[in-house]
Specification:
This protein is mainly alpha-helical. The chain contains seven helices and no strands. It is flat, with a radius of gyration of 19 Å.
């Protein structure tokens, strides 16, 4: 019983990182999305990536939609700041490599290389086939 009460007090005393309520966290995430959206033409031009602005913007949306179901305000804030929820993403919780404001700053200031930007389109690693027929079909010895 005492352990449960201590846990309740600890949960009640957790301080927010930036946002006080869910609406404020939502606004931060939307502002980050808009900032990425506005910078996309410049990123495509500066890094000379073989993608169109529309493809980049759809990837941006895909990365944000990945974290649509996150409800914890502190997690949302961390995604926006660090791993942003934005373009942000290669690991799932803030795969959000996506990283939010830090990723945006690094991209805009051209502190990244073309390979770092293209990594967002890297297909996920499929597990190697283990049975004979799957190996045969994929041409693996």
């Amino acid at each position: 019983m005492a352990g449960r009460e201590a846990a309740k007090r600890a949960v009640q005393q957790v301080r927010p990182i930036l946002s006080v309520d869910r609406e404020q966290a939502r606004k931060r995430a939307l502002n980050l999305y808009k900032a990425w959206y506005r910078q996309m033409p410049y990123i495509v031009m500066d890094y000379d990536i073989p993608k169109t602005v529309e493809q980049c913007r759809s990837k941006l949306r895909e990365e944000f939609v990945k974290h649509r179901n996150v409800t914890d305000i502190r997690v949302i804030d961390m995604l926006v700041i660090k791993v942003g929820t934005s373009f942000a993403s290669q690991n799932n919780t803030l795969s959000m490599h996506l990283q939010g404001q830090m990723e945006l700053k690094e991209s805009v200031e051209i502190w990244k290389q073309k390979g770092h930007i293209m990594r967002y389109w890297k297909e996920s690693q499929d597990p190697k086939p283990t049975d004979f027929l799957s190996k045969f079909i994929q041409g693996i010895n």
